[in-house]
């Protein structure tokens, strides 16, 4: 039942997405709402978000495949597949975001390695390759080669923090220029990776083997959520107390202008509720509930990524700069456009369908299949 | 394609310094070489530096008329720059003789509107076909059909049932009087009638007229009032923005060919009272008559660059005026040099923001401030006594003063002590009349004094050592006259005062504190400014513009500041108050090759009669005079081109109804206050039976026309833009075709193919009506006027020739190289516009003259060398004659609404009065509405320039923060304006559209509390801002052009006449700043 | 005279040497634009490495007119939303003591530019003239450089046109198709002529002020400089000891924006 709903949702999302892809490919970025101040909007947030999930899944999966932890036994392949699916969707997100995606090859051949973007391109590529090899190996029956997994792990750790670095290097933007940002992103990755696995296993029926990981997975997630919460507090309270406009303003914007999204979705739904639910053994044992909590965490995390990314760009770098000129994209205001939402939904559709198809058709890849047979 | 080029040294160092191990793959910017190679090859960048891709012409994005250079790539106007030859764009400007090749990479400065002119040229909404109001639809409904040029001309010439509304009279029948000889005789007879003062003799003359012209009475508008003139006068031409060349052509067409007296410009919407104060103050002494003749319609401005102290009064120099490119560099230089300036303005303009002092005066109280200053100046005796005492040209010459005033002349007072006229020497027996024979044999009266000196006419009187002395004001060789300044006495039982004493009395009507209170400033401000003003000799100056002028008391505000300048004697001085100087383009100077204004193939028409605006003849002289006041509508004895009065007079058919109205580059509906009144009249086919417009798009005004003829934009056409008072050099800016739009239609007139344009309309009508002054023998036998350049190139030749009869003042001939560049640069123009053979023909194929013209055209005009503008501490082109402190002509003129005499010297009258000179109270409307220009906008014209809209996309209501707080209005809130004459705050533009007069509030510290202001340029409903239907196809409006707000629609309608906004009945100004409004939060 | 360091400059300027009061031997007065134009010709004779382009903006003389902004748009055919030299306006003070501050902001052409290091493909870099350029054919449009610039000096070309939405195909009007050539056919940035169509660069690229490199190369001063009606913008080779800019940047009241960031801007402001 869950699955048919999920398929329906996935197909609808993809259909909307196709319109978005079409629009983006034909009209370029003309219909995007991000601009010259908010240069990175929903798609970049989605890229960070999906990339983070991918890395997180990989890291969790390596507990099985690389470290052979008993509790996680049997979930490695699923994790790798989830990593691959979200990675592809994430890369599509960033691809659409590029003004000239057809030139992406330049980032390999004419690369500037000082650039965070270049690092990302390379790291994600390597990460993708390692994931693919590991997945291939684990699907073809053999155990993935340790060296691949280790390299993958290293790259994954790097990639996890990369978005943080990408933003953090911008010394002109105090809000981002915090050394802790990469660490935060690593935590995000681990949290969302776990959440993704909880969704897969919780909602779509985990095999007994996978279910064994629940007590640990949920506790670990709860722990991560706590760290998330702690960091949020540290970041916001420091920023607000410091009262430096370039730091405090984005925070105020989030807490006031986007109060519902922040307090309700990011904090309550995305952090507090799952924290409570997942830290209680009783509730953490209910797979469906765990799955739903996974969704909540994902949702909350998406919002939190967006809030780290976007409001910081809505601050004038020079007083009056944004009102010195008027024109499409020359504005601090940002609400994702229809096209952006459509593309975003398309990517979500791809993730949903990718996961389901993996479960249903790529038999050896997914343990869900064996569960179905059971 | 990808090359792994070696990196530059610097880049290498950088890379190795960073020293990442990853450098192995790093390709250093191959691209940097790509860019550098492209630059070196300079494939297309060089077009910018190529003189054969440049044409010098003149901007018309606003009326400053800066000299520009259009850079052309593949026939496309790619970029506009400042033409470096001109004093508009460089200060000082380089030598005129510099070869154009050497100038190709030097550029001068122009403003953002000038830059954006490309978007006026390439406006997708520009019309390329003649449009006719769709028969069966109403004016303003926005429904049009296309019609061929020839058919349209036939229709307007012949008339007929053009719109299914019955017969419309065409131009042919309106031009009832065609016999130019009869017209000339009639004109003379009418003049005689008007000049006759005796009532009975006047009657006789009228009867005689009817008898003499009995065969022609049917050609008159009203045989009972023959002085209304021929029916020809029922063709009326009204223009908004028009410059030399076209203006001369219009004169030729309307008056001298068609025979209508009615051609009026827009002066009073602009700064009319400023011009007409200048006219009154420059009124000339006629020595034969012993009376004043008319003065010149002009005004003075500060010599910005050389002043040590300037008071800018209602002058918006950093956003508008004439104009930023030529004046701003001088003003900002003053800032860095530490030379002070003050800005008197209710609003903190950008100029005020940068001033030493901003004086936020109460709107319209400018004269009070000036009076306060004068009082201080009198009290402290800081006026220039030596200069003011000079009473005639001879004394001025002796003292090496460039000009003189009538400050010392004695004025007679009436029994109430009010000034009437200058005392004449004959009245107190200083001279006695003798009759003799004049040079032409006619009897004349001369005046002889006791010493036997003979004056050509009666003369004025000054007091010298307590004794009255007669003197000749204008004769340079006469005895120098230097008079006592403050005279208040009685001579031969006649109470008299000197002009200066009269002024002093005015200034002493109130104390400085009281003047301060009236003008809403502090007494200290008045004193400090007065002190500074009188501390820099002749290098201080007050520079006034629209702010003081566009009030019901505008004339006297301007007058007060002009006289303030007079008190320190700064006229014609470097750093003082100076006048314009241009080259004659009409062959008025001896030796000039083409006196075009006088070159007619056949007899030209002498237009005559009372003009629609009643500016050319005094009411009392005409047959309409019945001894009663008020008249139905005001007469304007001192002003002309009273724009607001055009429509109201048409509306009231006073003095007579019109039949055909032609408008040109006219934005009246948008630009005038009380817009509704103009719309209502223009949409009424009874009042305006036929309305023909020339426009480049369906504009705010042309949308109420019956036919719109497409025009060439300023970048495609000819004109002579002239100059402004603040420019001390003798110049003439020549506008010439720089580009041509792809596929622009052409028409055939007199067998010639020319572009469809304004000139084409006149040539075509002239061809149909066989008008004199046009056609194969238009200028003279065998000298055709069949193409626009036939006219304009002759004017270029006159300019090139200059002012010296022997030609020593003429420009050099263009060298072969310059000629080559000239031809090359115009290669992209179609033959209909540029055919070198035809151009040369216009100058009778005179090679020398042709080359001189080319020399001028290559430079976009003629500009005197920088060093020649001054002689010592004075300007080289001075005004140089009598300046009227007391204006006798003004004092003699009667306001026909009140029947009272006007006042002939500065005086304080409160602003905001109706046509009967009654105070308008408008209680419940607490704010004083004013308006201003912003740098990026010109009138209704620049809404088409999207580049400019990205700087400021919409208008707003500027309101002081304290006022806003009281009304609970925050920055950005939407507000509506309403006034007593527009309580709803909406403008009904017809066709079912009503435009609310609302926009965002701009809450600021920079405006006087109690005053609200809005910038000009937004709130459109045509010009691409309204949907129209052409041939059944919908042309959608562009939302960017509909942004709010335009406040003219809420401006006060005159409560007396009810169909026009308020006016300054003395200076003619249309009133923009005296409306009381409510600000309503919506 | 406000400041002695400025004396050398104003000595050349007309107000000081106005013909009225000019001492006999005074140098012929010339517009500061003429002087800079001459200096530019001389600078172009030196090698790239020997010259150091800088811009000086005298805020006392800036009147916030935006001539520079629009000149730049016109010169570089910037599409909607793209601007190289905005001018900010700030009202200061309380009625009736009110003033305004205007700040034109071209690219600072930082000597330590944070914007170039973040570019993944070397599309933006400091060229040998020291100008931070963008290679449109190289740029992938990731906008990392926009985020990195602390001055907001970069904007993105989303492919819009100013004439978008205007009437098309109406034969009685000029119509968009015939009107838009100026917008689509004459971009010559970096000396390369580009037609604006579809997704071709510079659409999809980041764009920024380049000190009008293509004009410099042709011996013409930057468009914002020549059209600055306040005469507030000065440009030239700071390595030329006789140049105006060399003189000006030595003034005591010269500042750089956000100097504390260590970006070492080549644009200086006089307050
Ligand atoms: N940008 C731009 N420039 C232009 C034009 C344009 O349309 N746009 N048009 C050109 C033309 S045709 C003209 S006539 C000139 C006009 O040039 P200006 O007269 O210099 O310009 P305006 O903005 O009309 O000036 C009116 C000024 O007077 C102030 N003011 C209003 N009421 C009063 C008052 O009662 N007393 C005083 N002292 N000041 C008052 C306003 O706040 C404003 O600053 O500009 C020319 N230049
Ligand atoms: N609120 C407010 N109103 C003002 C002012 C203000 O400061 N504030 N200023 C006033 C001043 S100073 C003036 S001078 C007046 C000016 O007012 P107007 O003289 O009435 O002229 P414009 O508004 O310039 O309108 C000219 C019209 O001509 C048409 N046109 C444009 N280009 C061409 C062309 O090349 N050929 C032809 N044939 N037609 C063309 C267009 O339809 C345009 O609307 O406005 C006044 N109105
Ligand atoms: S001031 Fe007027 S004429 Fe001069 S460039 Fe600007 S718009 Fe053109
Ligand atoms: S101002 Fe910004 S874009 Fe320009 S060089 Fe500096 S960092 Fe780069
Ligand atoms: S947007 Fe272009 S120039 Fe900027 S960092 Fe990305 S690739 Fe480089
Ligand atoms: S230097 Fe050139 S590119 Fe830079 S702001 Fe000025 S005009 Fe624009
Ligand atoms: S052009 Fe000059 S005066 Fe005008 S805003 Fe730009 S820098 Fe300031
Ligand atoms: Mo005007």
- Mean pLDDT across every amino acid position of chain B: 95
Helix content of chain C: 25-40%
The overall pLDDT average of chain C reads: 90
Q: Biggest interface between protein chains, with counts per chain?
A: B-C, 123 and 95 residues
Number of domains of chain C: 1
The separation of the N and C termini of chain C measures: 15 Å
Radius of gyration of chain C, CA atoms, in whole angstroms: 20 Å
Low-confidence stretches of chain C: 1-24
Q: Report the total helices of chain C.
A: 11
Multimerization status: heterotrimer
- Overall structural class of chain B, as computed from helix and strand content, comes to alpha+beta
Features:
heterotrimer, A: 374 residues, mainly alpha, Formate dehydrogenase/DMSO reductase fold, 2 domains, 15 helices, 72% helix, globular, B: 1082 residues, alpha+beta, nine-stranded mixed sheet, six-stranded mixed beta barrel, 27% helix, disordered N terminus, binds ligand MGD, binds iron/sulfur cluster, binds molybdenum atom
Question: What this model shows, in words?
Answer:
The complex is a heterotrimer of chains A (374), B (1082) and C (271). Chain A has two domains: 1-29 and 344-365; 33-336, Formate dehydrogenase/DMSO reductase domain (Formate dehydrogenase/DMSO reductase fold, Up-down Bundle). The model of chain A is unreliable at 364-374 (pLDDT under 50). Chain A is 72% helix and 0% strand. By secondary structure, chain A is mostly helical. In chain B, a hairpin with a 2-residue loop joins strand 46 (986-990) and strand 47 (993-996). The relative contact order of chain B is 0.14. Helix content of chain C is 25%, strand content 17%. Chain C is built from eleven helices and ten strands. Chain C has helices at residues 4-12, 14-17, 32-45, 67-76, 114-117, 144-148, 175-179, 181-184, 213-217, 223-226, 244-248; strands at residues 53-58, 87-94, 97-104, 124-126, 132-134, 154-156, 206-208, 233-237, 254-255, 267-270. In chain C, the strands form four sheets. Chain C has a four-stranded mixed beta sheet. In chain C, strands 2-3 form a two-stranded antiparallel ribbon. Residues 1-24 of chain C have low confidence and may be disordered. The interface between B and C is large, with 123 and 95 residues. Bound molecules: ligand MGD (2 copies), iron/sulfur cluster (SF4) (5 copies) and molybdenum atom (MO). One ligand MGD binds at residues 62-64, 270-271, 313-316, 319-323, 344-347, 349, 361, 363-364, 366, 545-548, 930, 932-933, 935, 937-939, 1013, 1073 of chain B.
């Amino acid at each position: 039942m869950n699955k048919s709903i999920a398929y329906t949702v996935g197909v609808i999302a993809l259909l909307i997405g196709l319109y978005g892809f079409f629009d983006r490919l034909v009209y370029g970025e003309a219909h995007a709402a991000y601009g010259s101040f908010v240069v990175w909007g929903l798609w970049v947030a989605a890229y960070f978000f999906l990339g983070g999930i991918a890395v997180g899944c990989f890291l969790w999966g390596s507990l099985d495949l690389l470290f052979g932890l008993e509790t996680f036994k049997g979930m490695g392949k699923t994790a790798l597949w989830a990593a691959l699916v979200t990675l592809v969707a994430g890369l599509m997100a960033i691809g659409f975001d590029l003004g000239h995606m057809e030139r992406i090859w330049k980032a390999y051949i004419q690369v500037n390695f000082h650039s965070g973007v270049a690092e990302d391109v390379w790291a994600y590529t390597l990460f993708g390759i390692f994931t693919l090899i590991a997945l291939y190996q684990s699907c073809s029956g053999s155990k993935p080669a340790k060296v691949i997994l280790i390299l993958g792990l290293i790259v994954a750790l790097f990639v996890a923090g990369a978005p943080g670095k990408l933003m953090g290097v911008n010394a002109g933007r105090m809000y981002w220029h915090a050394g802790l940002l990469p660490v935060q992103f690593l935590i995000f990755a681990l949290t969302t990776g776990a959440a993704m696995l909880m969704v897969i296993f919780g909602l779509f029926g985990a095999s007994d083997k996978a279910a064994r990981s629940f007590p640990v997975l949920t506790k670990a997630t709860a722990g991560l959520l706590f760290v998330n919460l702690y960091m949020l507090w540290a970041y916001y309270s420091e920023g607000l107390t410091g009262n430096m406009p370039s730091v405090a303003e984005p925070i105020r914007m989030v807490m006031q202008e986007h109060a519902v999204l922040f307090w309700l979705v990011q904090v309550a739904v995305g952090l507090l509720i799952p924290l409570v639910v997942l830290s209680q053994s009783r509730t953490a044992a209910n797979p469906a509930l765990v799955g739903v909590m996974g969704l909540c965490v994902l949702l909350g995390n998406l919002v939190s990524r967006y809030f780290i990314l976007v409001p910081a760009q809505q601050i004038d770098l020079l007083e009056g700069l944004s009102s010195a000129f008027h024109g499409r994209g020359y504005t601090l205001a940002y609400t994702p456009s229809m096209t952006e939402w459509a593309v975003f939904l398309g990517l979500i559709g791809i993730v949903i369908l990718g996961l389901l198809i993996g479960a249903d058709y790529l038999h050896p890849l997914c343990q869900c299949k064996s569960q179905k047979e059971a | 394609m990808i090359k792994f080029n070696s990196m530059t040294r610097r880049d290498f160092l950088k890379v190795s310094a960073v020293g990442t191990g990853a450098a192995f793959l790093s390709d250093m910017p191959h691209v940097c070489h790509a860019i550098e190679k492209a630059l070196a090859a300079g494939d297309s960048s060089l077009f910018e530096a190529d003189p054969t891709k440049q044409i010098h012409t003149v901007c018309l994005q606003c009326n400053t008329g800066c000299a520009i250079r259009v850079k052309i790539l593949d026939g496309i106007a790619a970029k506009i720059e400042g033409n470096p030859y001109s004093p508009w764009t460089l200060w000082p400007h380089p030598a005129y003789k510099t070869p154009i090749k050497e100038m190709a990479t030097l550029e001068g400065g122009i403003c953002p509107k000038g830059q954006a002119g490309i978007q006026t040229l390439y406006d997708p909404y520009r019309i390329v076909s003649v449009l006719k109001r769709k028969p069966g639809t109403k004016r303003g409904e926005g429904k049009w059909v296309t019609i061929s040029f020839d058919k349209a001309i036939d229709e307007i010439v012949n008339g007929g049932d053009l719109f299914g509304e019955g017969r419309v009279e065409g131009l042919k029948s309106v031009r009832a009087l065609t016999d130019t000889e009869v017209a000339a005789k009639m004109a003379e007879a009418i003049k005689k009638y008007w000049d006759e003062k005796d009532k009975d003799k006047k009657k006789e003359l009228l009867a005689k007229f009817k008898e003499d012209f009995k065969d022609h009475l049917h050609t008159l508008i009203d045989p009972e009032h023959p002085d209304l003139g021929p029916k020809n006068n029922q063709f009326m031409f009204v223009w908004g923005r028009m410059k030399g060349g076209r203006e001369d052509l219009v004169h030729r067409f309307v008056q001298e060919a068609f025979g209508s007296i009615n051609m009026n410009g827009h002066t009073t919407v602009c700064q009319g009272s400023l011009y007409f104060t200048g006219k009154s103050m420059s009124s000339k002494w006629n020595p034969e008559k012993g009376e004043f003749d008319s003065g010149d319609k002009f005004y003075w401005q500060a010599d910005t660059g050389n002043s040590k102290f300037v008071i800018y009064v209602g002058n918006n120099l950093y956003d508008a005026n004439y104009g930023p490119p030529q004046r701003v560099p001088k003003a900002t230089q003053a800032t860095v040099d530490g030379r002070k300036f003050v800005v008197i303005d209710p609003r903190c303009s950008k100029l005020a923001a940068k001033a030493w002092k901003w004086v936020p005066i109460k709107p319209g109280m400018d004269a009070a401030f000036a009076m306060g200053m004068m009082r201080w100046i009198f009290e402290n005796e800081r006026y220039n006594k030596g200069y003011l005492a000079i009473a005639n040209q001879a004394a001025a010459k002796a003292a090496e003063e460039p000009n003189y005033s009538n400050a010392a002349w004695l004025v007679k007072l009436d029994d109430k002590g009010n000034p009437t006229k200058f005392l004449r020497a004959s009245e107190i027996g200083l001279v006695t009349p003798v009759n003799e024979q004049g040079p032409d044999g006619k009897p004349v009266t001369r005046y002889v004094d006791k010493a036997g000196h003979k004056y050509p006419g009666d003369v004025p009187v000054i007091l010298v050592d307590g004794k009255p002395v007669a003197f000749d004001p204008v004769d340079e060789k006469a005895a120098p006259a230097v008079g006592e300044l403050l005279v208040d006495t009685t001579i031969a039982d006649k109470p008299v005062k000197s002009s200066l004493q009269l002024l002093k009395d005015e200034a002493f009507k109130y104390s400085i504190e009281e003047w301060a209170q009236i003008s809403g400033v502090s007494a200290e401000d008045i004193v400090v400014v007065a002190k500074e003003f009188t501390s820099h000799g002749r290098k201080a100056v007050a520079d006034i513009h629209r702010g003081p002028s566009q009030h019901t008391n505008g004339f006297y505000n301007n007058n007060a500041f002009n006289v303030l300048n007079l008190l320190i004697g700064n006229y014609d001085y470097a750093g003082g108050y100076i006048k314009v100087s241009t080259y004659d383009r009409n062959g008025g100077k001896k030796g000039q090759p083409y006196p075009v204004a006088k070159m007619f193939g056949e007899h030209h028409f002498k237009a005559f009669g009372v003009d629609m605006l009643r500016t050319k003849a005094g009411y009392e002289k005409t047959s309409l005079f019945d001894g009663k006041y008020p008249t139905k509508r005001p007469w304007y004895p001192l002003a002309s081109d009273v724009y607001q009065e055009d429509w109201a007079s048409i509306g009231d058919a006073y003095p007579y109804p019109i039949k055909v109205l032609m408008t040109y580059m006219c934005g009246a509906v948008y630009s005038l206050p009380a817009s509704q009144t103009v719309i209502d009249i223009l949409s009424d086919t009874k009042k305006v039976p036929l309305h023909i417009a020339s426009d480049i798009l369906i504009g705010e005004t042309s949308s109420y026309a019956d036919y719109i003829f497409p025009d060439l934009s300023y970048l495609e056409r000819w004109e002579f833009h002239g100059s402004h008072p603040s420019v001390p050099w003798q110049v003439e800016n020549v506008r010439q075709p720089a580009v041509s739009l792809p596929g622009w239609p052409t028409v055939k007139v007199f067998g010639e193919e020319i572009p469809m344009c304004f000139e084409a309309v006149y040539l075509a009508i002239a061809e149909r009506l066989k008008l004199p002054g046009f056609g194969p023998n238009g200028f003279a036998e065998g000298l055709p006027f069949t193409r626009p350049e036939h006219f304009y190139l002759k004017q270029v030749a006159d300019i090139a020739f200059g002012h010296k009869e022997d030609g020593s003042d003429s420009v050099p001939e263009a060298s072969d190289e310059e000629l080559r560049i000239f031809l090359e640069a115009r290669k992209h123009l179609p033959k209909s516009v540029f055919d070198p053979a035809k151009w040369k023909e216009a100058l009778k194929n005179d090679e020398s003259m042709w080359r001189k013209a080319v020399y001028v055209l290559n430079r976009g005009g003629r500009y005197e060398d920088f060093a020649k503008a001054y002689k010592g501490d004075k300007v080289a082109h001075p005004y140089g004659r009598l300046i009227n402190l007391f204006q006798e002509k003004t004092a003699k003129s009667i306001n026909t609404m009140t029947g009272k005499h006007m006042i002939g010297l500065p005086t304080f009258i409160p602003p905001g009065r109706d046509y009967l000179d009654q105070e308008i109270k408008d209680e419940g409307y607490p704010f004083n509405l004013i308006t201003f220009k912003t740098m990026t906008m010109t009138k209704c014209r620049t809404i088409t320039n999207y580049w400019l809209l990205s700087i400021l996309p919409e208008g707003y209501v500027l309101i002081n923060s304290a006022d806003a707080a009281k009304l609970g209005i925050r920055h950005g809130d939407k507000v509506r304006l309403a006034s007593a004459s527009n309580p709803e705050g909406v403008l009904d533009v017809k066709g079912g559209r009503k435009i609310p007069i609302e926009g965002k509030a701009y809450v600021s510290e920079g405006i006087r509390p109690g005053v609200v202001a809005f910038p000009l340029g937004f709130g459109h409903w045509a010009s691409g801002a309204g949907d129209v239907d052409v041939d059944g196809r919908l042309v959608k409006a562009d939302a960017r052009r509909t942004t709010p707000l335009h406040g003219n629609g809420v401006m006060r309608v005159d409560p007396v006449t009810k169909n026009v906004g308020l006016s300054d009945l003395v200076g003619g100004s249309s009133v923009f700043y005296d409306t009381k409004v409510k600000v309503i939060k919506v | 005279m406000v400041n002695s360091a400025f004396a050398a400059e104003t000595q050349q300027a007309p107000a000081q040497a106005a013909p009225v009061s000019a001492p006999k031997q005074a140098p012929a007065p010339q517009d500061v634009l003429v002087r800079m134009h001459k200096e530019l010709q001389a600078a172009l004779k030196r090698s790239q490495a020997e010259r150091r382009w800088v811009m000086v903006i005298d805020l006392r003389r800036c009147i916030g007119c935006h001539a520079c902004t629009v000149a730049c748009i016109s010169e570089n055919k910037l599409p909607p939303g793209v601007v190289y030299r905005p001018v900010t306006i700030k009202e200061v003070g309380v009625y009736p003591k009110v003033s305004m501050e205007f700040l034109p902001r071209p690219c600072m052409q930082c000597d330590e530019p944070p914007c170039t290091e973040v570019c993944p493909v070397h599309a933006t870099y400091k060229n040998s003239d020291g100008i931070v350029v963008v290679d449109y054919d190289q740029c992938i449009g990731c906008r990392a450089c926009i985020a990195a610039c602390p001055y907001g000096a970069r904007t993105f070309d989303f492919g819009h046109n100013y004439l978008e939405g205007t009437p098309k195909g109406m034969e009685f009007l000029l119509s968009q198709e015939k009107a838009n050539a100026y917008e689509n056919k004459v971009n010559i940035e970096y000396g390369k002529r580009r037609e604006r169509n579809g997704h071709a660069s510079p659409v999809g690229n980041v764009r920024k002020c380049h000190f009008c490199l293509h004009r410099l190369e042709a011996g013409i001063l930057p468009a914002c400089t020549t059209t600055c009606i306040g005469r507030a913008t000065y440009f030239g080779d700071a390595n030329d000891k006789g140049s105006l800019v060399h003189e000006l940047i030595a003034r005591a009241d010269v500042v750089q924006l956000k100097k504390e960031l260590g970006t070492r801007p080549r644009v200086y402001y006089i307050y």
